[in-house]
Structure prediction request, 247 residues.
Amino acid sequence: MNTVLITGCSSGYGLETARYFHSRGWNVVATMRTPREDVLPHSDRLRVLALDVTRPESISAALQASGPIDVLVNNAGIGILGAFEATPMATAREVFETNTFGVMATTQAVLPQFRARRSGVVVNVTSSATLAPMPLVAVYTASKAAIEGFTGSLAHELASFGARAKLVEPGYGPTTRFTQNGAPRMEGLIPEAYAPYAQSVFAAFARQTVVTSESDVAEAVWCAANDASGQLRFPAGPDAVALARSK
Prediction:
């Protein structure tokens, strides 16, 4: 029976992905910074572990507790929305610590077992913001675009050991907790000079009717984890699929 370890499972895409894999008979290790077992079904095939991807000791402890895994899903991430001019570099570094370096660190910690077994899949969840320029998300896009390049290169390295690396690119999903979770770090990031422009952007987002659901992302992660065709990118949601095709 296959085992998947998923980061960022307290809500949103990670939580739905954990449920999706579990419903299909996999062993699931659902990780989050503050463990909450009440959000997932009680099952002997599902464990909830603490994992903060910005702390090496937390990564090591979680992997030791989980035992061998077949698939790593790097889903944990933080959002930021605002004018780049108003974004402190400390805030930009905070975003990169989770969205970029956290993904790299967790992946690096898992690779020795994949290489030794000559099997395994790394699935990195990025964003459709990497498929087309989008306003007010310069730092967020940069943190995710870095993982796009990282994953493409990693896929070549792992192929010689029988392991794989994949990308899942979710579209716009207003039901996620992106802005809610990022609210404190976004304070002051829309200064007065940018307010009229930002209002027009927010209005455009509010009018968007083609959106990505959490189940869209979970299904795309499932497809990526089980794909043996060599496909690297898996856009998730109708809007992301349309952007990928136009690109």
Observations:
- Residues 89-117 form the longest helix (29 residues).
- The helical segments are 12-23, 56-66, 89-117, 138-159, 178-186, 195-207, 214-226, 238-246.
- The chain has a mean pLDDT of 93.
- The radius of gyration is 18 Å.
